Target: Secreted protein
Amino acid sequence: MNTIFRKSMLSVAGLAFAGGVVAGPIAAHANPVDAKPVAVAVQSAAPKPPGDQSHITLNDEQTANVKAIIAATKKAGLPERAAVISIATSLQESKLENLGHLGDKNDHDSLGLFQQRPTSGWGTPEQITDPAYSTTAFLKGLQQVDGWQDMALTDAAQTVQVSAYPDAYAQWEQQATDLVGQYWNS
Model:
C-alpha cells in the first residue's frame, strides 16, 4: 500500500474514532429514536485494483507465456494470487515477451519474461530465458517475502524485483487477474 494512501486511511480512521469519542457520550443522553434496520448492499465481485489500469492485446507467444507462468505456479503448489502477481510483473517487465539481449536498449543484462539479471544471481541467460525456470525463480523470491499473500500486488512484486519504478506493477493487476481467471482451469 503506498504511503499517501496509507496515511489518508489512517487519518480517516482517526477522525472517525475522534468523532465517536465526542459524539458517543452526547448520543447516550439523547432521547431514543424509533430506529428501523437498514438494508446493506453486499458487493459480490472482487474489488477493482487501485489506480489506472493498462491492457494489451496478447499474441500467441504472449498467451503461451501466460500459460507457462500459470503451469509453473501450479507446479510450485502456489495459489492463483501468486500467478496474478507473476503475470502482472511480467506484463510490466517485458509485456509477456521472452526478451533476449537487447543491446543498447537493454537494462544492464536483464533477460526473459521478468527482466532477470544473470549478474544478480537469477541464473544463466539460458535459464532466465526459459519461461518455466524464470517463473519458478520469481516465485521462489516471492515466497521469501513475509505476508506476500496479503500485500498489494505492486508491493509484493517490487520486493522481489527491486525495480526503479516500484509502483508500475499495479497498472497490470486487472489484466493479470483476468488472464488467471481465463487460463487457470484450462
Remarks:
- The helical segments are 3-28, 60-75, 80-94, 125-128, 131-143, 153-161, 173-183.
